[in-house]
Amino acid sequence: MKKRLYLLPSILFLLFFAYGRILLYLQKDISVDFTSLYAPALKDIGIGILILLFLYALSKVSLIASYVLALVLGIFHLANVEYIYALDHVVNLKDITMASDKEFIAGTLFHVSFPVYSILLMASLLASIFCQRKLPLLQLKTKRYSLLAFAGLLILYLALAVYSSGDWKNGNFVSASIRNSVALLTFNDEDLTDYPPDIERQINTSQQLKEGEYLLGNHTGKKNILMVVMEGIPGAYSPANQEYLNIPNEIKLTSLDKIKAHSLILPNYITHNNQTIRGMYSLVSGDYPKLDASTPKAYEYLQKDPSYREELLPKLLKNRGYNTAFIQGAVLEYMSKGDFMTAAGFDTVIGGESFNSPYVPFGWGPDDKAFFEQSQKYIDELNAKGKPWFATMLTVGTHHPYAVTDDYAKNYPSRKAAAVAYLNEALSGFIDYIDHSSFAKDTLVLFVSDESHGVNDQPYGSNWGIFAAYSPDINGQIINDGVFGQKDILLSLLDYADPDLDAYTTGRSVFRKYTEDSPILFASHYNGDVFYSTEKGTVYQVDNSGQLYSLTSENGELFSGKYERTSLSDSDLKKKILTYRNYIDKSSAEDQRIVITKDKEIPLADGSESIITDGQFITLPAESYVDVQVDYAASAMADPDWLVLKFEDYIGHKSVRMIDKQNGSGAITFRFYNKKVVYGYAFNLKTALHSNDYSGADKAIRINRITVEFPKTAPSAAPTATPSPGASAGPAAAPSPTASSGTEHVEVVDMDSGSE
């Protein structure tokens, strides 16, 4: 009997391991039945047994190592549960780079969605290791045999993982993560760069903008435009879409019914990739974002000389007499959205730092009710300037783990559903504010999404965005059933704002009805799938293993309740799709140097930390040095003052630099060597003032420029600079002419040599 009790933790672990799937089905309102569950549940139990076996073998070699590995595997499984819950995808190992990003952790781990399940799974797994050692079964007499057994089981597990399904509904979560990650690392290494000369027309359109029938009636232009970008909201939540496409969903943004009498709806609206910075880039640039996870185009835009940058939507409207403003809930430093939106041409840029007194504490920024209410004063100020205006608002409350209280969430089947309901209430109040404002009759309002957090049973649900336009110019509810994407917004708003727009402009406007379809591409960088369509109702998919499929909708629309999926062997079509993807993903800036931010002044208060930059998501080339250069100048520092710069990245590099009055301006380079290509690299840089005599004087640090450079060899050495107080100097190098010319203090910190 006692020996049987030793098996109890292992049995409980297997049950909890498999129950994660049922938990997600229940939370995501997917039908739980034997037919859909038995095969993947058996895979979960089989993989769970394999995990227990190689943890047992490892425990015979090193008990501590087995506990550490158990923690890693358990946390990885739980991370997948959270990821699937939030985004309907498993974790890609390249996304693990965000696991130590401070802003990401502060936002994402603000609330664990399934705390009881998480505790029970981890406790049963750790207890299994302890109890397994009490069992006489499978006794391995020597560490050598134990190590061989562990290695063999691990190889078997990895082989099963690589050849298992990459879809979480059909495969084990951890195995699906490994499979997708391996596929992304090994597939499509062909250099498909033989671009046809008319590729822009092949991936966008050859149509002229004004070929389509204008749907809004007559207007004089020069009206206000407000674009409300809602974090992660898919088109499946639109009541009009649900009715038109006959795709029911329990989650509904019923607040949009308030605009029904004067609205234009796009049921077939695409977000081209995942991640906010990519979606926002596409909305204001009229361009595709990169379809992979490499350095976002927003950063590449910042690298260009201002006189050679393409004019983006805010600048184009500014040229037409508009005042412009960008307002978001998250802090501006994260993803450098503040720098990008300023470069894009917004006159005023406001971030989460400007929002106080939230109703719900939340790691990412103000909850949606607080955001919409407090944004009204900024819009009123913009309207009071007496010129037409363009404002873009970006919410954050529906980002995982969702800005709702626990009591509020109890009334809904999931925290995601609760967060959308909370957004719905906040949006309803905001629409009332618009309707009762002095500018109501002179304003076009767009309700769109930056990305989609996924839709159950939709093969490309993570690319289904929401679009609803609201204006007195619109009579009744107009359904434009054409296929449009985020890249079409720029020309659409120019079409609305400027009746004199060149008649020969190439492109498409959401406010026009076209008789012909146009090509469109989209992707998910979570799993590497690429989609291409030239005819509504048929979408071609190249999955991350290189297999080509056609997806044909039952209703003839882009999105449908059912699809027919057919495997194809058309190598020319597959090559064309991947060539298009490579063209979209190619870098438009010099890869050897990236400007992260410049000309930023940060006020300093004694002791409190301020974020300088965070969440960059850049790609590090292989076999190169990485130099993060900070060119700074601190003002109004007294003799007893000292300033701290804290650098930390997910790889584990950390450094604290101390600056006093003597070295109050200068440049610091944080350096390390990078062996393999890294995607999604991010670092966190903070500053804090420490003063023995803080009298309230205006003290600040000015960041002249932060750059990341990738020299293939270590820059030539220069005389060692005098270190700041309390800091050890790393090996010095010749300063970058841009980063440190004319400064008083230059310091190079070689983090690979342990100088911190």
From TrEMBL:
Domain Sulfatase N-terminal, first and last residues per copy: 224-464
Localisation: Cell membrane
GO molecular function: hydrolase activity; transferase activity
Disordered: annotated span: 714-756
Bias (Low complexity) ranges: 714-743
Membrane topology per record: Multi-pass membrane protein
Record's protein name: Sulfatase-like hydrolase/transferase
Positions of transmembrane segments: 36-57, 64-85, 105-126, 147-166
Family matches, as InterPro entries: Alkaline_phosphatase_core_sf, OpgB/LTA_synthase_biosynth, Sulfatase_N
Pfam families from the UniProt entry: Sulfatase (PF00884)
Pathways per UniProt: Cell wall biogenesis; lipoteichoic acid biosynthesis
Keyword rRNA-binding included in the entry's annotation: no
CDD domains recorded: LTA_synthase
Lineage: superkingdom: Bacteria
